[in-house]
Protein backbone atom coordinates (compact mmCIF):
# COMPACT_ATOMS: atom_id res chain seq x y z
CA UNK A 1 0.00 0.00 0.00
CA UNK A 2 1.20 3.48 -0.84
CA UNK A 3 1.26 6.25 1.75
CA UNK A 4 -0.43 9.54 0.86
CA UNK A 5 1.95 12.48 0.48
CA UNK A 6 0.39 15.85 -0.20
CA UNK A 7 1.75 17.31 -3.48
CA UNK A 8 2.89 20.44 -1.69
CA UNK A 9 5.16 21.74 -4.44
CA UNK A 10 2.38 21.70 -7.00
CA UNK A 11 -0.17 23.06 -4.53
CA UNK A 12 2.09 26.00 -3.69
CA UNK A 13 2.93 26.61 -7.34
CA UNK A 14 -0.76 26.79 -8.23
CA UNK A 15 -1.62 28.95 -5.21
CA UNK A 16 1.08 31.52 -5.91
CA UNK A 17 1.51 31.46 -9.69
CA UNK A 18 -1.91 30.57 -11.13
CA UNK A 19 -4.55 31.39 -8.52
CA UNK A 20 -2.94 34.64 -7.34
CA UNK A 21 -2.66 34.14 -3.58
CA UNK A 22 -0.76 37.43 -3.20
CA UNK A 23 -3.70 39.32 -4.74
CA UNK A 24 -6.22 37.52 -2.57
CA UNK A 25 -4.17 38.22 0.57
CA UNK A 26 -4.48 41.97 -0.15
CA UNK A 27 -8.29 41.84 -0.05
CA UNK A 28 -10.08 43.21 3.03
CA UNK A 29 -10.42 40.46 5.62
CA UNK A 30 -7.80 38.22 3.97
CA UNK A 31 -4.64 39.72 5.44
CA UNK A 32 -3.89 36.69 7.60
CA UNK A 33 -2.89 34.73 4.50
CA UNK A 34 0.80 35.60 4.66
CA UNK A 35 3.27 33.28 2.89
CA UNK A 36 4.72 32.01 6.17
CA UNK A 37 1.28 31.34 7.64
CA UNK A 38 0.07 29.54 4.55
CA UNK A 39 3.21 27.40 4.35
CA UNK A 40 2.86 26.41 8.01
CA UNK A 41 -0.79 25.50 7.53
CA UNK A 42 -0.09 23.37 4.46
CA UNK A 43 2.82 21.57 6.09
CA UNK A 44 0.82 20.73 9.21
CA UNK A 45 -2.24 19.68 7.19
CA UNK A 46 -0.05 17.40 5.10
CA UNK A 47 1.29 15.78 8.25
CA UNK A 48 -2.20 15.27 9.72
CA UNK A 49 -3.53 13.84 6.46
CA UNK A 50 -0.64 11.39 6.14
CA UNK A 51 -0.31 10.34 9.77
CA UNK A 52 -3.90 10.41 11.06
CA UNK A 53 -6.40 10.15 8.18
CA UNK A 54 -4.68 8.06 5.50
CA UNK A 55 -4.00 5.04 7.77
CA UNK A 56 -7.75 4.83 8.52
CA UNK A 57 -8.86 4.93 4.90
CA UNK A 58 -8.59 1.31 3.81
CA UNK A 59 -9.52 -0.22 7.20
CA UNK A 60 -12.51 2.12 7.35
CA UNK A 61 -13.58 1.00 3.90
CA UNK A 62 -13.47 -2.64 4.98
CA UNK A 63 -15.29 -2.10 8.29
CA UNK A 64 -17.81 0.52 7.23
CA UNK A 65 -20.28 2.31 9.48
CA UNK A 66 -23.02 0.36 11.23
CA UNK A 67 -26.45 1.11 12.69
CA UNK A 68 -27.96 -0.42 15.83
CA UNK A 69 -30.90 0.91 17.88
CA UNK A 70 -30.89 4.17 15.98
CA UNK A 71 -27.22 4.82 16.72
CA UNK A 72 -24.49 4.86 14.09
CA UNK A 73 -21.01 3.65 14.89
CA UNK A 74 -18.26 4.80 12.55
CA UNK A 75 -15.21 2.57 11.93
CA UNK A 76 -12.54 2.16 14.56
CA UNK A 77 -10.36 5.23 14.90
CA UNK A 78 -12.67 7.63 13.08
CA UNK A 79 -14.13 9.30 16.17
CA UNK A 80 -10.70 9.82 17.72
CA UNK A 81 -9.46 11.26 14.43
CA UNK A 82 -12.36 13.69 14.34
CA UNK A 83 -11.70 14.84 17.91
CA UNK A 84 -8.06 15.52 16.94
CA UNK A 85 -9.26 17.24 13.77
CA UNK A 86 -11.56 19.59 15.69
CA UNK A 87 -9.01 20.22 18.44
CA UNK A 88 -6.47 21.17 15.77
CA UNK A 89 -8.75 23.97 14.55
CA UNK A 90 -9.16 22.49 11.09
CA UNK A 91 -12.94 23.01 11.02
CA UNK A 92 -12.59 26.73 11.69
CA UNK A 93 -10.09 27.55 8.93
CA UNK A 94 -12.31 29.52 6.47
CA UNK A 95 -14.83 31.04 8.89
CA UNK A 96 -15.29 34.56 10.23
CA UNK A 97 -13.29 35.32 13.40
CA UNK A 98 -16.49 36.76 14.91
CA UNK A 99 -17.73 33.17 15.13
CA UNK A 100 -14.44 31.68 16.29
CA UNK A 101 -13.04 31.04 12.82
CA UNK A 102 -9.55 31.76 11.57
CA UNK A 103 -10.73 34.09 8.80
CA UNK A 104 -8.52 32.62 6.11
CA UNK A 105 -9.48 32.90 2.44
CA UNK A 106 -11.24 30.05 0.67
CA UNK A 107 -8.15 29.79 -1.54
CA UNK A 108 -6.03 28.80 1.48
CA UNK A 109 -8.63 26.31 2.71
CA UNK A 110 -8.84 24.69 -0.73
CA UNK A 111 -5.54 22.75 -0.75
CA UNK A 112 -6.20 21.74 2.85
CA UNK A 113 -9.60 20.37 1.90
CA UNK A 114 -7.96 18.55 -1.01
CA UNK A 115 -5.61 16.82 1.43
CA UNK A 116 -8.49 15.61 3.62
CA UNK A 117 -10.35 14.14 0.64
CA UNK A 118 -7.21 12.50 -0.78
CA UNK A 119 -6.25 10.93 2.51
CA UNK A 120 -9.71 9.79 3.54
CA UNK A 121 -12.71 10.69 1.41
CA UNK A 122 -15.24 9.13 3.79
CA UNK A 123 -13.94 11.13 6.75
CA UNK A 124 -13.75 14.42 4.85
CA UNK A 125 -17.45 14.43 3.96
CA UNK A 126 -18.47 15.32 7.51
CA UNK A 127 -16.60 18.65 7.77
CA UNK A 128 -17.49 19.48 4.15
CA UNK A 129 -21.23 19.31 4.91
CA UNK A 130 -20.74 21.25 8.12
CA UNK A 131 -19.03 24.04 6.18
CA UNK A 132 -22.02 24.35 3.86
CA UNK A 133 -24.46 24.47 6.77
CA UNK A 134 -22.48 27.22 8.48
CA UNK A 135 -22.35 29.30 5.27
CA UNK A 136 -26.12 29.10 4.79
CA UNK A 137 -26.86 29.87 8.43
CA UNK A 138 -24.41 32.78 8.54
CA UNK A 139 -26.00 34.32 5.46
CA UNK A 140 -29.69 33.83 6.26
CA UNK A 141 -30.16 32.83 9.90
CA UNK A 142 -31.45 35.12 12.63
CA UNK A 143 -28.99 36.48 15.17
CA UNK A 144 -30.40 34.14 17.80
CA UNK A 145 -29.90 31.09 15.59
CA UNK A 146 -26.41 32.20 14.60
CA UNK A 147 -25.41 32.74 18.22
CA UNK A 148 -26.72 29.35 19.28
CA UNK A 149 -25.37 27.19 16.47
CA UNK A 150 -22.52 28.76 14.51
CA UNK A 151 -19.77 29.07 17.18
CA UNK A 152 -20.13 25.43 18.18
CA UNK A 153 -20.20 24.26 14.57
CA UNK A 154 -17.15 26.35 13.71
CA UNK A 155 -15.35 24.86 16.72
CA UNK A 156 -16.21 21.37 15.47
CA UNK A 157 -18.17 20.61 18.68
CA UNK A 158 -21.31 20.15 16.55
CA UNK A 159 -21.64 19.05 12.92
CA UNK A 160 -24.15 19.95 10.22
CA UNK A 161 -26.01 18.24 7.40
CA UNK A 162 -28.01 19.08 4.29
CA UNK A 163 -31.48 17.46 4.13
CA UNK A 164 -32.81 17.96 0.62
CA UNK A 165 -34.27 15.01 -1.17
CA UNK A 166 -36.89 12.36 -0.41
CA UNK A 167 -37.71 8.93 -1.87
CA UNK A 168 -40.18 10.29 -4.42
CA UNK A 169 -38.24 13.46 -5.30
CA UNK A 170 -34.68 12.64 -6.35
CA UNK A 171 -33.25 15.80 -7.90
CA UNK A 172 -36.74 17.26 -8.50
CA UNK A 173 -37.08 19.17 -5.26
CA UNK A 174 -40.45 20.52 -6.35
CA UNK A 175 -41.77 17.13 -5.17
CA UNK A 176 -40.59 17.55 -1.57
CA UNK A 177 -43.40 16.58 0.83
CA UNK A 178 -41.87 17.04 4.30
CA UNK A 179 -44.23 19.27 6.26
CA UNK A 180 -43.59 22.14 8.66
CA UNK A 181 -46.51 23.26 10.86
CA UNK A 182 -46.21 26.53 12.79
CA UNK A 183 -46.29 26.25 16.58
CA UNK A 184 -45.46 29.42 18.46
CA UNK A 185 -41.85 30.45 17.84
CA UNK A 186 -40.99 27.20 16.08
CA UNK A 187 -42.36 24.64 13.64
CA UNK A 188 -43.16 20.94 13.83
CA UNK A 189 -41.39 19.00 11.09
CA UNK A 190 -42.69 15.66 9.83
CA UNK A 191 -41.52 13.54 6.91
CA UNK A 192 -38.57 11.51 5.68
CA UNK A 193 -35.27 12.46 4.09
CA UNK A 194 -32.86 10.19 2.24
CA UNK A 195 -29.16 10.23 1.30
CA UNK A 196 -28.17 12.32 4.33
CA UNK A 197 -24.40 12.19 4.68
CA UNK A 198 -23.40 11.89 8.34
CA UNK A 199 -27.07 12.30 9.31
CA UNK A 200 -26.22 10.24 12.38
CA UNK A 201 -22.76 9.47 13.76
CA UNK A 202 -20.64 9.19 16.90
CA UNK A 203 -18.25 12.10 16.28
CA UNK A 204 -20.26 14.69 18.23
CA UNK A 205 -23.31 14.63 20.48
CA UNK A 206 -25.17 17.34 18.59
CA UNK A 207 -25.98 17.25 14.86
CA UNK A 208 -27.60 20.28 13.21
CA UNK A 209 -29.81 19.38 10.27
CA UNK A 210 -30.77 21.96 7.65
CA UNK A 211 -34.05 20.67 6.28
CA UNK A 212 -36.23 21.63 3.32
CA UNK A 213 -39.95 21.43 4.10
CA UNK A 214 -43.33 22.96 3.21
CA UNK A 215 -45.62 25.02 5.41
CA UNK A 216 -49.37 24.21 5.17
CA UNK A 217 -50.25 27.22 3.00
CA UNK A 218 -47.14 27.23 0.82
CA UNK A 219 -47.49 27.41 -2.98
CA UNK A 220 -46.79 24.32 -5.09
CA UNK A 221 -43.40 23.64 -6.61
CA UNK A 222 -40.01 24.96 -5.59
CA UNK A 223 -41.45 28.36 -4.65
CA UNK A 224 -43.19 26.77 -1.67
CA UNK A 225 -40.12 25.30 0.03
CA UNK A 226 -38.74 26.71 3.28
CA UNK A 227 -35.51 26.00 5.16
CA UNK A 228 -35.38 24.93 8.80
CA UNK A 229 -32.79 24.08 11.42
CA UNK A 230 -33.71 20.83 13.14
CA UNK A 231 -31.16 19.90 15.83
CA UNK A 232 -30.77 16.34 17.06
CA UNK A 233 -31.03 17.71 20.61
CA UNK A 234 -33.04 20.81 21.48
CA UNK A 235 -30.71 23.52 22.77
CA UNK A 236 -31.13 24.67 26.36
CA UNK A 237 -31.03 28.38 27.31
CA UNK A 238 -27.24 28.23 27.59
CA UNK A 239 -27.03 26.55 24.17
CA UNK A 240 -26.01 23.12 25.43
CA UNK A 241 -27.90 20.07 24.10
CA UNK A 242 -31.09 19.33 26.01
CA UNK A 243 -33.88 16.85 25.33
CA UNK A 244 -33.84 14.61 22.24
CA UNK A 245 -35.71 15.98 19.24
CA UNK A 246 -37.99 13.78 17.13
CA UNK A 247 -35.47 13.00 14.41
CA UNK A 248 -33.86 9.58 14.11
CA UNK A 249 -31.89 7.47 11.69
CA UNK A 250 -33.98 4.52 10.53
CA UNK A 251 -31.43 3.00 8.15
CA UNK A 252 -28.07 3.57 6.46
CA UNK A 253 -27.41 2.88 2.81
CA UNK A 254 -25.25 -0.02 1.61
CA UNK A 255 -23.17 1.73 -1.02
CA UNK A 256 -20.69 1.03 -3.80
CA UNK A 257 -18.04 3.11 -2.04
CA UNK A 258 -17.39 5.58 0.81
CA UNK A 259 -18.34 2.75 3.18
CA UNK A 260 -17.05 4.53 6.27
CA UNK A 261 -19.34 7.52 5.67
CA UNK A 262 -22.86 6.85 7.04
CA UNK A 263 -25.46 7.81 4.42
CA UNK A 264 -28.69 7.93 6.40
CA UNK A 265 -32.45 7.80 6.01
CA UNK A 266 -33.83 10.23 8.59
CA UNK A 267 -37.38 10.16 9.91
CA UNK A 268 -38.85 13.34 11.38
CA UNK A 269 -41.75 13.39 13.79
CA UNK A 270 -43.06 9.98 14.82
CA UNK A 271 -45.39 11.65 17.33
CA UNK A 272 -45.92 15.43 17.51
CA UNK A 273 -43.20 16.29 15.02
CA UNK A 274 -39.59 17.37 15.30
CA UNK A 275 -39.07 20.95 16.45
CA UNK A 276 -37.49 23.12 13.78
CA UNK A 277 -36.56 26.80 13.50
CA UNK A 278 -37.16 28.80 10.33
CA UNK A 279 -34.08 30.09 8.53
CA UNK A 280 -34.80 33.43 6.83
CA UNK A 281 -38.27 33.77 5.32
CA UNK A 282 -40.86 31.18 4.43
CA UNK A 283 -40.91 29.91 0.82
CA UNK A 284 -37.31 30.94 0.11
CA UNK A 285 -35.67 27.76 1.32
CA UNK A 286 -34.39 26.50 -2.00
CA UNK A 287 -32.77 29.87 -2.68
CA UNK A 288 -30.99 29.65 0.68
CA UNK A 289 -30.03 26.02 0.21
CA UNK A 290 -28.31 26.90 -3.04
CA UNK A 291 -25.90 28.93 -0.91
CA UNK A 292 -24.80 25.65 0.57
CA UNK A 293 -24.98 23.78 -2.71
CA UNK A 294 -22.77 26.18 -4.68
CA UNK A 295 -20.08 25.97 -2.01
CA UNK A 296 -20.56 22.21 -1.94
CA UNK A 297 -20.33 21.92 -5.73
CA UNK A 298 -16.89 23.49 -5.69
CA UNK A 299 -16.03 21.19 -2.79
CA UNK A 300 -17.16 18.12 -4.70
CA UNK A 301 -15.18 19.21 -7.76
CA UNK A 302 -12.17 19.46 -5.49
CA UNK A 303 -12.91 15.92 -4.29
CA UNK A 304 -12.44 14.91 -7.91
CA UNK A 305 -8.95 16.43 -7.85
CA UNK A 306 -8.22 14.76 -4.53
CA UNK A 307 -9.33 11.24 -5.42
CA UNK A 308 -7.58 11.44 -8.77
CA UNK A 309 -4.37 12.48 -6.99
CA UNK A 310 -4.64 9.59 -4.54
CA UNK A 311 -5.30 7.08 -7.34
CA UNK A 312 -2.30 8.46 -9.22
CA UNK A 313 0.02 8.20 -6.24
CA UNK A 314 -1.12 4.62 -5.63
CA UNK A 315 -0.60 3.65 -9.28
CA UNK A 316 2.78 5.39 -9.40
CA UNK A 317 4.02 3.52 -6.34
CA UNK A 318 2.94 0.22 -7.87
CA UNK A 319 4.53 1.05 -11.23
CA UNK A 320 7.83 1.83 -9.53
CA UNK A 321 7.90 -1.44 -7.57
CA UNK A 322 6.17 -4.05 -9.75
CA UNK A 323 8.79 -5.99 -11.76
CA UNK A 324 7.46 -7.48 -14.99
CA UNK A 325 9.02 -8.01 -18.40
CA UNK A 326 12.08 -6.54 -20.06
CA UNK A 327 12.27 -3.16 -21.70
CA UNK A 328 11.06 -3.07 -25.30
CA UNK A 329 13.85 -4.12 -27.64
CA UNK A 330 15.71 -6.09 -24.95
CA UNK A 331 15.70 -9.89 -25.39
CA UNK A 332 17.91 -10.66 -22.42
CA UNK A 333 18.99 -9.19 -19.14
CA UNK A 334 17.12 -8.26 -16.01
CA UNK A 335 13.42 -7.63 -15.94
CA UNK A 336 12.34 -4.11 -15.06
CA UNK A 337 9.65 -2.36 -13.11
CA UNK A 338 6.60 -1.61 -15.22
CA UNK A 339 7.18 2.16 -15.18
CA UNK A 340 9.80 1.47 -17.88
CA UNK A 341 7.09 0.28 -20.29
CA UNK A 342 5.91 3.08 -22.61
CA UNK A 343 2.18 2.47 -22.23
CA UNK A 344 2.40 2.52 -18.45
CA UNK A 345 4.24 5.82 -18.71
CA UNK A 346 1.52 7.09 -21.05
CA UNK A 347 -1.15 6.21 -18.48
CA UNK A 348 0.77 7.83 -15.64
CA UNK A 349 1.42 10.97 -17.68
CA UNK A 350 -2.27 11.15 -18.59
CA UNK A 351 -3.24 10.91 -14.93
CA UNK A 352 -0.65 13.46 -13.82
CA UNK A 353 -1.32 16.04 -16.53
CA UNK A 354 -5.08 15.99 -16.05
CA UNK A 355 -4.75 16.25 -12.26
CA UNK A 356 -2.50 19.30 -12.56
CA UNK A 357 -4.98 20.95 -14.91
CA UNK A 358 -7.90 20.10 -12.63
CA UNK A 359 -6.11 21.41 -9.54
CA UNK A 360 -5.26 24.68 -11.25
CA UNK A 361 -8.84 25.26 -12.39
CA UNK A 362 -10.33 24.39 -8.98
CA UNK A 363 -7.93 26.69 -7.12
CA UNK A 364 -8.51 29.46 -9.67
CA UNK A 365 -12.25 29.19 -9.01
CA UNK A 366 -11.62 29.38 -5.25
CA UNK A 367 -9.72 32.64 -5.79
CA UNK A 368 -12.73 33.99 -7.70
CA UNK A 369 -14.94 33.09 -4.74
CA UNK A 370 -12.70 35.13 -2.43
CA UNK A 371 -12.72 38.08 -4.83
CA UNK A 372 -16.49 37.90 -5.22
CA UNK A 373 -16.86 38.21 -1.44
CA UNK A 374 -14.06 40.58 -0.47
CA UNK A 375 -12.99 42.76 -3.39
CA UNK A 376 -13.55 46.46 -2.60
CA UNK A 377 -14.24 47.42 -6.22
CA UNK A 378 -17.86 46.66 -7.18
CA UNK A 379 -17.03 46.06 -10.83
CA UNK A 380 -14.24 43.61 -10.00
CA UNK A 381 -16.49 41.92 -7.47
CA UNK A 382 -19.18 41.46 -10.12
CA UNK A 383 -16.67 40.16 -12.65
CA UNK A 384 -15.33 37.62 -10.17
CA UNK A 385 -18.86 36.46 -9.31
CA UNK A 386 -19.76 36.01 -12.98
CA UNK A 387 -16.59 34.00 -13.58
CA UNK A 388 -17.21 31.91 -10.45
CA UNK A 389 -20.79 31.20 -11.55
CA UNK A 390 -19.54 30.07 -14.95
CA UNK A 391 -16.73 27.89 -13.63
CA UNK A 392 -18.62 26.21 -10.77
CA UNK A 393 -20.48 23.64 -12.93
CA UNK A 394 -17.31 23.07 -14.97
CA UNK A 395 -15.18 22.41 -11.89
CA UNK A 396 -17.85 20.17 -10.42
CA UNK A 397 -18.76 18.27 -13.58
CA UNK A 398 -15.45 18.02 -15.41
CA UNK A 399 -13.22 17.32 -12.40
CA UNK A 400 -15.48 14.58 -11.06
CA UNK A 401 -15.86 12.83 -14.41
CA UNK A 402 -12.10 13.00 -14.88
CA UNK A 403 -11.61 11.50 -11.42
CA UNK A 404 -13.61 8.42 -12.34
CA UNK A 405 -11.55 7.96 -15.51
CA UNK A 406 -8.28 8.55 -13.68
CA UNK A 407 -9.15 6.11 -10.90
CA UNK A 408 -10.07 3.56 -13.56
CA UNK A 409 -6.73 4.15 -15.26
CA UNK A 410 -5.09 3.56 -11.89
CA UNK A 411 -6.60 0.08 -11.83
CA UNK A 412 -5.33 -0.48 -15.37
CA UNK A 413 -1.79 0.40 -14.30
CA UNK A 414 -2.06 -2.36 -11.70
CA UNK A 415 -3.30 -4.86 -14.29
CA UNK A 416 -5.11 -7.83 -12.77
CA UNK A 417 -3.94 -6.85 -9.31
CA UNK A 418 -5.96 -3.65 -9.59
CA UNK A 419 -9.15 -5.71 -9.68
CA UNK A 420 -8.24 -7.28 -6.35
CA UNK A 421 -9.51 -5.31 -3.37
CA UNK A 422 -6.43 -5.99 -1.24
CA UNK A 423 -4.24 -3.76 -3.40
CA UNK A 424 -6.46 -0.76 -2.63
CA UNK A 425 -6.71 0.59 -6.18
CA UNK A 426 -10.37 -0.38 -6.56
CA UNK A 427 -11.43 1.68 -3.54
CA UNK A 428 -10.53 4.95 -5.25
CA UNK A 429 -12.74 4.09 -8.21
CA UNK A 430 -15.60 3.03 -5.95
CA UNK A 431 -15.28 6.15 -3.83
CA UNK A 432 -14.99 8.43 -6.87
CA UNK A 433 -18.15 7.11 -8.51
CA UNK A 434 -20.48 9.06 -6.22
CA UNK A 435 -18.94 12.47 -6.83
CA UNK A 436 -20.33 12.72 -10.37
CA UNK A 437 -23.77 12.43 -8.69
CA UNK A 438 -23.30 14.51 -5.52
CA UNK A 439 -24.86 18.00 -5.53
CA UNK A 440 -26.46 17.38 -8.92
CA UNK A 441 -25.37 14.92 -11.58
CA UNK A 442 -23.08 15.89 -14.43
CA UNK A 443 -26.16 16.32 -16.60
CA UNK A 444 -27.61 18.79 -14.09
CA UNK A 445 -24.34 20.73 -13.98
CA UNK A 446 -24.23 20.79 -17.77
CA UNK A 447 -27.82 22.00 -17.97
CA UNK A 448 -26.97 24.81 -15.58
CA UNK A 449 -23.91 25.71 -17.66
CA UNK A 450 -25.62 25.90 -21.07
CA UNK A 451 -28.81 27.41 -19.67
CA UNK A 452 -28.19 29.91 -16.89
CA UNK A 453 -24.51 30.53 -17.53
CA UNK A 454 -24.31 30.64 -21.34
CA UNK A 455 -27.76 30.67 -22.93
CA UNK A 456 -29.55 33.22 -20.74
CA UNK A 457 -26.67 35.68 -20.71
CA UNK A 458 -25.94 35.20 -24.41
CA UNK A 459 -22.47 33.85 -23.77
CA UNK A 460 -21.09 37.06 -22.23
CA UNK A 461 -19.06 35.41 -19.44
CA UNK A 462 -18.01 32.44 -21.56
CA UNK A 463 -16.77 34.67 -24.38
CA UNK A 464 -14.91 36.85 -21.86
CA UNK A 465 -13.08 33.74 -20.61
CA UNK A 466 -12.35 32.72 -24.20
CA UNK A 467 -10.83 36.16 -24.79
CA UNK A 468 -8.59 35.66 -21.73
CA UNK A 469 -7.57 32.27 -23.08
CA UNK A 470 -6.56 33.85 -26.40
CA UNK A 471 -4.26 36.27 -24.59
CA UNK A 472 -2.38 33.32 -23.11
CA UNK A 473 -2.24 31.62 -26.51
CA UNK A 474 -0.76 34.80 -27.96
CA UNK A 475 1.94 34.79 -25.28
CA UNK A 476 2.79 31.21 -26.19
CA UNK A 477 3.44 32.34 -29.76
CA UNK A 478 6.33 34.56 -28.70
CA UNK A 479 7.66 32.53 -25.75
CA UNK A 480 10.97 30.76 -26.14
CA UNK A 481 11.24 27.04 -25.45
CA UNK A 482 7.51 26.31 -25.76
CA UNK A 483 6.78 23.37 -28.11
CA UNK A 484 4.81 24.20 -31.24
CA UNK A 485 2.07 21.71 -30.34
CA UNK A 486 1.32 23.61 -27.16
CA UNK A 487 0.78 26.81 -29.13
CA UNK A 488 -1.19 25.30 -31.98
CA UNK A 489 -3.32 22.85 -30.02
CA UNK A 490 -4.38 25.44 -27.44
CA UNK A 491 -5.46 27.82 -30.20
CA UNK A 492 -7.39 25.06 -31.95
CA UNK A 493 -9.02 24.11 -28.65
CA UNK A 494 -10.06 27.70 -28.00
CA UNK A 495 -11.46 27.93 -31.55
CA UNK A 496 -13.49 24.78 -30.91
CA UNK A 497 -14.83 26.13 -27.63
CA UNK A 498 -15.82 29.44 -29.19
CA UNK A 499 -17.53 27.69 -32.10
CA UNK A 500 -19.55 25.52 -29.71
CA UNK A 501 -20.35 28.48 -27.44
CA UNK A 502 -21.69 30.58 -30.31
CA UNK A 503 -23.78 27.62 -31.48
CA UNK A 504 -25.35 27.39 -28.02
CA UNK A 505 -26.01 31.14 -27.90
CA UNK A 506 -27.68 31.01 -31.33
CA UNK A 507 -29.62 27.78 -30.74
CA UNK A 508 -30.76 28.17 -27.13
CA UNK A 509 -33.58 30.72 -27.78
CA UNK A 510 -34.96 28.60 -30.63
CA UNK A 511 -34.45 25.04 -29.41
CA UNK A 512 -33.45 24.64 -25.78
CA UNK A 513 -34.01 20.89 -25.99
CA UNK A 514 -31.34 20.55 -28.68
CA UNK A 515 -28.88 22.46 -26.52
CA UNK A 516 -29.71 20.25 -23.53
CA UNK A 517 -29.07 17.16 -25.64
CA UNK A 518 -25.40 18.11 -26.08
CA UNK A 519 -24.87 19.95 -22.79
CA UNK A 520 -22.56 17.34 -21.25
CA UNK A 521 -20.21 17.28 -24.26
CA UNK A 522 -20.13 21.09 -24.02
CA UNK A 523 -19.25 20.96 -20.32
CA UNK A 524 -16.48 18.46 -21.05
CA UNK A 525 -15.23 20.64 -23.91
CA UNK A 526 -15.13 23.65 -21.62
CA UNK A 527 -13.22 21.66 -19.02
CA UNK A 528 -10.67 20.30 -21.48
CA UNK A 529 -9.92 23.74 -22.93
CA UNK A 530 -9.96 25.50 -19.56
CA UNK A 531 -7.50 22.88 -18.34
CA UNK A 532 -5.30 23.62 -21.35
CA UNK A 533 -5.51 27.33 -20.55
CA UNK A 534 -4.29 26.66 -17.01
CA UNK A 535 -1.50 24.37 -18.19
CA UNK A 536 -0.35 26.95 -20.72
CA UNK A 537 -0.18 29.57 -17.98
CA UNK A 538 1.80 27.09 -15.87
CA UNK A 539 4.21 26.46 -18.74
CA UNK A 540 4.86 30.17 -19.22
CA UNK A 541 5.62 30.60 -15.51
CA UNK A 542 7.82 27.49 -15.42
CA UNK A 543 9.79 28.62 -18.47
CA UNK A 544 10.41 32.02 -16.89
CA UNK A 545 11.43 30.56 -13.53
CA UNK A 546 13.89 28.17 -15.16
CA UNK A 547 16.00 31.22 -16.07
CA UNK A 548 16.63 31.90 -12.39
CA UNK A 549 19.86 30.50 -10.92
CA UNK A 550 18.15 28.96 -7.86
CA UNK A 551 15.31 27.37 -9.85
CA UNK A 552 13.90 24.00 -8.82
CA UNK A 553 14.73 22.51 -12.18
CA UNK A 554 13.31 19.06 -11.55
CA UNK A 555 9.90 20.43 -10.59
CA UNK A 556 9.76 23.07 -13.33
CA UNK A 557 10.91 20.72 -16.08
CA UNK A 558 8.29 18.26 -14.88
CA UNK A 559 5.68 21.01 -15.13
CA UNK A 560 6.71 21.75 -18.72
CA UNK A 561 6.55 18.05 -19.54
CA UNK A 562 3.03 17.65 -18.19
CA UNK A 563 1.89 20.84 -19.93
CA UNK A 564 3.24 19.53 -23.21
CA UNK A 565 1.60 16.14 -22.68
CA UNK A 566 -1.73 17.82 -21.93
CA UNK A 567 -1.47 19.89 -25.11
CA UNK A 568 -0.57 16.90 -27.28
CA UNK A 569 -2.90 14.28 -25.78
CA UNK A 570 -5.88 16.08 -24.19
CA UNK A 571 -6.45 19.26 -26.19
CA UNK A 572 -6.89 17.47 -29.55
CA UNK A 573 -10.11 16.03 -28.15
CA UNK A 574 -11.64 19.50 -28.08
CA UNK A 575 -12.31 19.50 -31.83
CA UNK A 576 -14.31 16.26 -31.71
CA UNK A 577 -16.28 17.45 -28.69
CA UNK A 578 -17.13 20.67 -30.56
CA UNK A 579 -18.38 18.64 -33.52
CA UNK A 580 -20.50 16.61 -31.13
CA UNK A 581 -22.00 19.79 -29.67
CA UNK A 582 -22.75 21.55 -32.95
CA UNK A 583 -23.90 18.51 -34.91
CA UNK A 584 -25.02 15.83 -32.49
CA UNK A 585 -28.29 17.01 -30.96
CA UNK A 586 -30.57 15.54 -33.62
CA UNK A 587 -29.27 12.00 -33.19
CA UNK A 588 -29.71 12.20 -29.41
CA UNK A 589 -33.40 13.02 -29.90
CA UNK A 590 -34.03 10.89 -32.99
CA UNK A 591 -35.48 7.86 -31.20
CA UNK A 592 -38.85 8.28 -29.53
CA UNK A 593 -38.80 7.28 -25.82
CA UNK A 594 -41.41 4.63 -26.52
CA UNK A 595 -39.07 2.93 -29.01
CA UNK A 596 -36.19 2.34 -26.60
Question: Which keywords apply here?
Answer:
57% helix, Butyryl-Coa Dehydrogenase, subunit A, domain 1, 8-stranded mixed beta sheet, two-stranded antiparallel ribbon, 11% strand, alpha+beta, 19 helices, 596 residues
Helix count, DSSP H or I runs of 4 or more residues: 19
Number of strand segments: 12
Q: Which descriptor suits the 3D outline?
A: globular
Cα end-to-end separation: 45 Å
Tell me the Rg in angstroms: 24 Å
Question: What is the arithmetic mean of pLDDT?
Answer: 95
Unreliable stretches covering 5 or more consecutive residues: none
Proportion of beta-strand residues: 5-15%
Query: How would you classify the helix and strand content by structural class?
Result: alpha+beta
Q: Report the major sheet.
A: 8 strands, mixed
**What portion of residues is helical?**
55-70%
Short description:
This protein has about 600 residues and is an alpha+beta fold.
Write the layout of secondary structure elements.
Blueprint (H helix, E strand, L loop, with lengths): L7 H11 L2 H5 L9 H29 L2 E3 L2 E3 L4 H10 L18 H14 L1 H20 L2 H12 L4 E5 L15 E5 L2 E12 L9 E7 L12 E6 L1 E3 L5 E4 L2 E6 L10 E6 L5 E5 L6 H37 L20 H33 L3 H37 L10 H8 L9 H14 L4 H19 L5 H24 L4 H6 L1 H27 L7 H18 L2 H11 L1 H4 L8
Parallel strand pairs: 3-6
Antiparallel strand pairs: 1-2, 4-5, 5-11, 5-12, 6-7, 7-12, 8-9, 10-11
Helix pairs in contact: 1-9, 3-5, 5-6, 5-8, 5-9, 6-7, 6-8, 8-9, 8-10, 8-11, 9-10, 9-16, 9-17, 10-11, 10-12, 10-16, 12-16, 13-14, 13-16, 14-16, 14-17, 14-18, 16-17, 16-18
Amino acid sequence: MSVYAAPLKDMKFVLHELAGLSEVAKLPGCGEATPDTVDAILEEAARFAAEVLDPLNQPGDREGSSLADGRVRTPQGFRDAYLKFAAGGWVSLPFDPDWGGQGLPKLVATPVDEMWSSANMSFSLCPLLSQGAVHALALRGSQALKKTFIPRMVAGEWTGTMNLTEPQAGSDLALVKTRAAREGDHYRISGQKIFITYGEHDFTEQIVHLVLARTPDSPEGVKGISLFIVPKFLPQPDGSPGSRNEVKCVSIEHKLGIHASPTCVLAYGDQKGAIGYLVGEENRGLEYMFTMMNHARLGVGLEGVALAERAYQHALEYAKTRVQGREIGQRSGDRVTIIHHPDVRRMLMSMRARIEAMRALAYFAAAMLDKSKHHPDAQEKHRAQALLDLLTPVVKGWCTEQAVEIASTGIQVHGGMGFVEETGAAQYLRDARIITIYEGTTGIQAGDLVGRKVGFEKGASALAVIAAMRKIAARLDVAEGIPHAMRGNLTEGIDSLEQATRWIVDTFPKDAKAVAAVSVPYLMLFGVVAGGWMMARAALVAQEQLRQPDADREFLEGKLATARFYAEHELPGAASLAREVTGGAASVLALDPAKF
